[in-house]
Write a structure and sequence with these properties.
three-stranded antiparallel sheet; about 65% helix; mainly alpha; 3 strands; single chain; about 10% strand
């Protein structure tokens, strides 16, 4: 009621260091005004939101009803779950196949001592981003050069290459040290794995 609001308003004014007296009804309304903000206001005020929403703005009621029915139907939900399960199974099969391509010696070390070899594998995989993202033409390959003095490290590097289905060769680096050269193959161009080698090892 009005008396209660006046007492509250007086307390607010005292906290502000102002006079406790308040007689103006407009001041009461301002003190206790409740602001509101609508998501629709954001939609109309934000250029990004308007651009994102624009493809749906011209949808007819019939199209909207059809889309909602399709999304909410049990059959559609089952289809989406089935598709996700199928994709996950295909990824699991591909990952297992790629692990089997690795030289047994390297694979045994990787699986048995994952934490120990993880830094090297992670470093090699970071270097492979160039192979993954580069649009190669035949004869255009510039190999990724991994300077690795230890034979153990070169064995693991070849194993990484086998998982990604890359070509790998041992060579002398420009510094006269030993190196492994990695370059794309037809198989690596066709498909890059969904799961990195390090992630696949950690899931075992």
């Amino acid at each position: 009621n009005e008396m209660y609001l006046k007492r509250c308003a007086s307390r607010i004014r005292i906290d502000r260091g102002e006079s406790a007296e308040i007689d103006d009804p407009e001041e009461l309304r301002e003190l206790f005004a409740v602001g509101s903000h609508s998501v629709f206001a954001d939609l109309h005020e934000s250029k990004t939101a308007l651009e994102a929403f624009s493809p749906f703005a011209s949808v007819t009621e019939e199209q909207e009803a059809s889309m909602l029915q399709e999304l909410s139907s049990p059959q559609a939900a089952r289809t989406r779950r089935s598709r996700r399960a199928s994709e996950a199974a295909a990824t699991a099969r591909d990952t297992q196949h790629r692990l089997c391509l690795i030289d047994p010696r390297a694979r045994t070390i990787m699986l048995g001592k994952t934490d120990a070899v993880a830094p090297l594998i992670e470093e090699i995989e970071a270097r492979l981003e160039h192979v993954k993202t580069h649009s190669w033409s035949e004869g255009d390959e510039v190999p990724v050069e991994l300077v690795l003095d230890e034979a153990f490290h070169r064995l693991l590097a070849h194993g990484v290459a086998q998982y990604y289905q890359l070509r790998s060769t041992s060579a002398s680096a420009s510094t006269q040290r030993r190196a492994v050269l990695l370059s794309p193959s037809l198989a690596s161009r066709a498909r890059w794995p969904e799961v990195t080698l390090l992630s696949a090892l950690r899931m075992r």
